[in-house]
Structure formats: structure tokens, C-alpha cells
Amino acid sequence: MHKDQVTLRPAHLADAWVIAEYNIAMALETEGKVLDPETVRKGVAAVLSDPAKGFYLLAESGGQVVGQAMVTFEWSDWRDGVFWWLESVYVLPDFRRRGVFACLFRALEAEGRARPGVVGLRLYVDHENLAAQETYRHLGMAASNYALYELEFGD
Asked: Listing from the earlier edge strand, what are the strands of the sheet with 7-10?
């Protein structure tokens, strides 16, 4: 696949079902987590309905969505600006290693650099997902000094 065979576009509410399906597939594949489809669909629809929460960029080939990335926002008082967090990154298995994620990443990087107040891109990756880590390094990202800790509420 060449980059000219992939087109990028912002996601719309009608894309919620495919984004949710890809999120479910990604969680199972990368973390062995089984997500509740209804919860995921509602979560995706919430982002698509409220730009303050974030946005999705989709990659298409032949009229099919073949990749996605969600951007959420983190205010940094240290930098007086916003980091864009890349989340819900997924590329269909048959389209991996063909430049789909690179197209998504480069477009988001260019858009972030063009927007005043955006100070950088961040993402998190499972420490065992070495292929993804290599991809991110190849695109110019570097591992940070921070470890991610969380406390989940709910079920």
C-alpha cells in the first residue's frame, strides 16, 4: 500500500459503530481485555458528539475504514499548552506495516504543529508491545521518563 491509496478524514457520528468495533478488537488483541460493546459505543458517541472531549481521525482504503486514532487533550501548566494524546489507535491486521498508521500520525503531527497552543503529542503503549514501540520510535517519538499509574472506578 502506498500513502496515496489511503485517504484520511475526520470521523462523524455515523462512524461510531466501526470505531467501537475497532476499539473492542484492539483491547482484546493488545491487552486481552473484553470490553462491553454498549459501553464502548456510548463512549465513542460521546466523543463524536462533544469536540471538547476529543476527535477521531480515520484512514480509508477502497471505501473501507482501515485505521483510526483518537485525540484527547491534556492541559500542561508547565508548558502553558495542550498535549494531544493519541488513543484508540487501531489498524486492521491486513493493512498493518503498510503505512496506514504513519499517515494518521503525520497528519495529526502536522495539525498539532499548526495549532497555536498545542505543545506536543503523547501516547501510551503496553510495555510488551515491542512492534508498536518500534513504530513510534521510527516516527520520531521517544520513551518518556514517566510511568503510567491508574486507579479505575466502577465495575
From this structure: 7-10, 55-61, 64-76, 81-91, 118-123
